[in-house]
Design goal:
It contains 23 helices and 25 strands. With 666 residues, it is an alpha/beta fold. Helix content is 37%, strand content 16%.
């Protein structure tokens, strides 16, 4: 399941340039999903986006489910906001979208095996879904805010975007990018340790649906050009500042040689719907093109479709040049389109084009801020027919290495590896304890060091260490204590130290004093003071008391997680806390996702990790609190009790030797 919130996403033909966000990533998603749907072993691929209505944009964007091709659908999620939203405005709608999307997933007869999030806003949705359903996610950034900052392009919310991108990189089970330059320079700028989570998988050449009348813009160029038979210098880009289209017009205007040799044709979106930055860029292009010397030499068509784009590439191959003058281009699908059509290119040296042109060899790189260099590079190709032919031939040969079927096969291999178990997280009481033979067998398993091992318990640190020693259970690699409100890591001196970053994250949305004041009048018996903590209040009570606490907090508008376990224990913890959250924090530090965690437990305070982790073992002696835990792929309800049950579940995952059946303890 792909998630893409920005732009106008529909079944082809797509009106690229319809809005500022309806660009190359839409082509990428549709091509990737379409080719994945054709791969063997794939039951269905869906693309999830926002539902909206907008008369100016057109119909069809509120349809709940749209068939695109066999085994490929677009699913649109409705929230309270039905308007089209630009990328910068999506953040405010994310909480409502997440709630609606989780409800959608709850109703599906089969949930997706993997999510693929496109841009950081979609990754925020995927993070919430992984926490709730344990579905792993892959992240493709497409374009990163840090590069806007490097190029001096300021826009509202840039720093918040960069922070969201950093969070996405930290949380993703894998990151797919298109070039090594993205790996080293672009993503590397975030300082996130990705290790082997980042994968470079080159996309293919976008296809253009041939629709409408047989006549295309090529047949109508006389409306703008005095001599449409001359070669064309072609650019195709959204009218935004970072695409630097004005520099191309300036280069053309400053060069009598270019004006004598070729016409300039720029496809810059659908002009009638432009607003804000797009309108300003289009106004600048029109003003530059209005000079008397350029009359009849520049075409700025106000609208175009896929057939127009394909026809213009074919026209440019006849002695012309394609130009991408962007200040920075993360990848550059248009360079592949040009190569496929046999059009030589002049492209920005910043970003993916450097790698593409080095690989294919169908053009030259320029400094996008040097307008004279842009003009000279174009002229050198136009003036040398032999070089033009050589670059054209190189493009047609080299583009064969960029094919969507190869992308689909490689990405699916990556998806399938996402849920490979990498770490075991176990509760202690009645999960590892309760049977001395089982505890000994688990210790023997641990001695083989098959997986890293975490303890996730409601106990305090001292109490957890005491019970592990009393049962002769092995020392874990990390301890999650106090019902997931403290993550303890081994320090260089061998002592347990609290993870400060996780502790700080629990402050978000948590008002401990207000929670305590709200619950005091309920008269529910508190547990001893030593069980409390900065992100935790604990009580003795039953299920009815638990409901009273939840109702009181809801009336007061206070955020907290309320956890009932073992039939008499109630914990009220910070909303960002819990065993699953702490496990996720530990996994991220090691380059894993929740999908790669095996969780084992028996009671209500294990519920969140048993739900969120990719693999879950519910031991045979589990309490009634877990009776309604929804069945899902990866959830193993075993018959054996206590540690023997943990080992039975590990055996089902191929991580332990199957043992003889052991009866559930009475």
């Amino acid at each position: 399941m792909h998630i893409a919130l920005g732009g106008c996403l529909k079944a082809p033909p797509v009106a690229y340039g319809l809005t500022a966000d309806t660009g190359g990533h839409i082509a990428y998603i549709l091509e990737a999903a379409g080719h994945q749907a054709r791969q063997p072993g794939v039951a269905e691929v869906s693309i999830v986006t926002r539902a909206f209505t907008d008369e100016a944009i057109g119909d069809g964007y509120a349809v709940a489910r749209e068939a695109v091709a066999p085994r490929l659908v677009i699913e649109r999620i409705t929230t309270g906001c039905t308007a089209y939203l630009e990328k910068e405005a999506l953040a405010a709608n994310l909480p409502a979208f997440i709630d609606a999307f989780c409800g959608h997933l709850d109703r599906l007869p089969r949930r997706p095996d993997v999510l693929h999030a496109h841009f950081a806003d979609a990754a925020a949705v995927a993070i919430a879904v992984e926490r709730r359903f344990g579905i792993p996610f892959v992240y493709t950034p497409h374009a990163l805010g840090i590069d806007k900052r490097r190029q001096g392009i300021q826009c509202e919310g840039l720093e918040a975007r960069i922070a969201a991108e950093r969070t996405a990189l930290e949380a993703a089970g894998a990151v797919i990018v298109s070039t090594q330059e993205e790996v080293t320079r672009q993503i590397g700028g975030y300082g996130v340790p990705l290790n082997d989570r980042v994968h470079c998988i080159a996309p293919g050449v976008p296809s253009h649906a041939m629709t409408g009348s047989p006549a295309t813009l090529v047949d109508r160029l006389r409306a703008w050009l005095a001599d449409p038979s001359r070669p064309i210098i072609l650019a195709v880009a959204r009218p935004v500042a970072k695409k630097n289209l004005a520099a191309l017009v300036r280069a053309y205007a400053a060069s009598p040689t270019l004006q004598a040799r070729a016409n300039l044709v720029i496809l810059a979106g659908q002009h009638e719907l432009a607003s804000g930055e797009e309108r300003a860029v289009l106004d600048e292009l029109r003003a530059l093109a209005a000079g008397p010397a350029l009359a009849g030499r520049i075409a700025l068509p106000p609208r175009h479709d896929g057939a127009d784009v394909a026809a213009l590439y074919a026209r440019a191959a006849k002695g012309g040049v394609f130009v991408n003058p962007a200040l920075h281009e993360p990848f550059g699908l248009t360079l592949l389109e040009a190569a496929d059509a046999g059009v030589p290119v002049v492209a920005t040296q910043n970003g993916g084009p450097a790698e593409i042109i080095a690989d294919i060899g169908h053009g030259v790189l320029v400094d996008p801020r040097n307008t004279s260099a842009i003009g000279e590079a174009i002229a050198h190709i136009l003036d040398d027919p032999e070089r033009h032919a050589a670059l054209s031939s190189a493009g047609r040969r080299g583009v064969e290495r960029y094919r969507w079927d190869a992308y689909a096969a490689e990405s699916l291999r990556l998806y399938r590896n996402l849920a490979t178990p990498q770490v075991l997280a176990c509760d202690i009481d009645n999960t590892l304890t309760g049977c001395s033979d089982g505890a000994s067998a688990f210790t023997a398993w641990r001695d083989a060091r098959i997986l890293p091992f975490l303890v996730a318990t409601g106990r305090s640190l001292d109490s957890a260490q005491h019970i592990l020693a009393a049962w002769k259970l092995p020392a874990p690699d990390a301890l999650i204590v106090d019902v997931g409100t403290r993550l303890m890591l081994a320090g260089t001196d061998g002592r347990w130290q609290e993870c400060p970053r996780f502790a700080q994250s629990l402050d978000e949305g948590w008002d401990r004093d207000a929670v305590a004041r709200t619950l005091l009048p309920l008269g529910i018996q508190p547990q001893p003071p030593e069980t409390a903590g900065p992100h935790k209040l604990s009580f003795f009570g039953d299920a009815a008391d638990t409901d009273r606490i939840r109702e009181a907090l809801a009336r007061a508008g206070l955020r907290a997680k309320v956890i009932f376990s073992h039939g008499h224990l109630i914990d009220v913890i910070a909303p960002m806390g819990g065993k699953a959250s702490a496990i996720a924090a530990y996994a991220r530090q090691s380059g894993w996702s929740l999908a790669q965690v095996v969780a084992a437990g028996d009671s209500g305070n294990d519920r969140d990790m048993l739900t969120a982790c990719g693999h879950a073992i519910v031991v045979g002696n589990a309490g009634e609190e877990l009776a309604d835990l929804p069945a899902r792929p990866g959830l193993h309800r075993v018959s054996a009790a206590h540690a023997h049950g943990v080992l039975e579940g590990l055996a089902q995952l191929g991580l332990a030797t199957p043992a003889a059946p052991i009866a559930v303890a009475a």
